[in-house]
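One record is set out below.
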Amino acid sequence: MYWRVGFAWSRSCALELGRNKSFSLGLSGSEEHLSLYGYIIAYPLQEYGGIMSALGFDSWWRKTLYITGGALLAAAAYLLHELLVIRKEQELDSEDAIILHQFARPKTGVPSLSPFCLKIETYLRMADLPYQNYFDGKLSPQGKMPWISYNKEQVCGTEFIIDFLEEKLGVNLDSSLSPQEKAISRAIIKMVEEHFYWTIAYCQWVDNVEETQKMLATNGPLSDLLRWILSQGTGSIVKREMYGHGIGRFSKDEVYSLMEKDMRTLATFLGNKKYLMGPRLSTVDAAVFGHLAQAMWTLPGTRPEQLIKGEFINLAMYCERIRRKFWPEWFVDVDDLYYDGLSEEPDSPSQLPDLGLYSRSGSFQEQESTLSHHDTPSPDSDVTGRSLFDSDMDTECSEMEQLK
């Protein structure tokens, strides 16, 4: 192995041979010595004419050129990225606009695989607040999703988002509830978000992860690999957090038993009411819908789908009622309202379109539909024969105006 010796002012090289040496210049027999302060260093060369040799003392200008060029390219790439980010933020951060940051739309037409993203977007539609989606996948500074930005303010956590919007914009879906009803509403929300959520997450990302993986929206030649990485990574996180929560320490059958108890509680409390707290919508409906919709439309053939479309059919009708009222662009097969044990994925699922800036006021009209009635229950009515089409739309619209 060959070695090259040089002089440096720092100890960034391989081997120090000496320090602060004085030596003769050797010019015309002169005995004058020159003192230099630094490090005499040595570094290996693989071979003459090799890479290390090319970067040696005799080609120092070439090394400088490589380093400078690389630094300039890195700086240019960074500046380009920042300019694109600033441009995107300028497009979105218009004054008094709610920017909703959430995960990308799944491939199957469901708005979101996240109960909390679906909850807050449904809440915005229930409150008739215009907003714009930003599917960047970037978590909030607290590591949460979803989160919103409004006039340069960032808020994460669905509960804090709703509190923020109520304070800033004066909306309140719970204004008609009594203090006792508000207490019941909060208890239901916490049961759903702190307990029932984990059973749904277990079914999505642990027990049924292969099917959930197919729903992830990724593009490019490595999309299959990326979907696998995302699903496996999410599954690992879910299992770890479930174990820390405590529910992950139980067996699969025990987890599903807890899920069934939660769904039975919701079905019993809902009964034959239109919404959970009565004839009017409230915040609890957005939270419960965001979670039950996962069982309805993202878990074909699983235990939660069997429960919601079978024994707890009133929950299925409840979800369908809200979907038709606030998600006109979200199409589902009406034959899919009942579980028959033969659930199959559509041959060519359509992705939910991004409507961009959304406002419910004047954006769509409830359409009357005439369907033939048979002796068996119609998909457009629940087991009591009640219509799902919200024939009292005008009355509810006037109620929504009063809430503001």
